[in-house]
Amino acid sequence: MALIQTLKILFNRDLDKLKFEIESYENENSLWIIDKNISNSAGNLCLHLIGNLNTYIGSEIGKTGYVRNRPLEFSLKDIPKSELIQKIEDTISVVNNALDSLTETDLEKIYPQIVFEKEMTTGFFLVHLSTHLAYHLGQINYHRRLLDF
Of the candidates 9, 49, 75, 12, which has an alpha carbon nearest to the alpha carbon of residue 140? Predict the structure, then answer.
């Protein structure tokens, strides 16, 4: 299976799971709880993932014009659950449209931005973005099971 198709499957799977996790909070206020050594709420992690994917895939690859405000991803609070879900659904469309615009040759090209202080291929960076999504998705799942009361 080509890498682009694999990435589409993984991004869709995990963004659908993100949507499921956010929808699964029984107490909407619990989305924004931080406690003890948990420094990021599920709501803020969700906003962070949306900002991350819309920046690096949407804006850079899909040419959407999205402008990121990373500090707000961690400082905004009490965004309604329905708005977070809509943002996730919009991000799914953005990611799919951007990935549909790529060729296998594009994956071998150097990603246009320096992100980790060195050049990397677009394919490598897209794999990284998928694992970044999965990492924070696990944190959100654990946050929900621990703090949704």
Answer: 49
Give the separation between CA 65 and CA 48, rounded to whole angstroms: 18
**Distance separating alpha carbons of residues 3 and 77, to the nearest angstrom:** 36
Helices and strands in the chain, H and E counts = 6, 0
**Alpha helix positions (H), 32-103:** 42-53, 70-75, 81-100
Q: Give the mean model confidence (pLDDT) for residues 81-104.
A: 98
Confirm if 140 and 46 have CB atoms less than 8 A apart.
yes
pTM: 0.96
Q: Are 41 and 32 in contact (CB under 8 A)?
A: yes
Residue where the block lists tokens 């990284």: 128
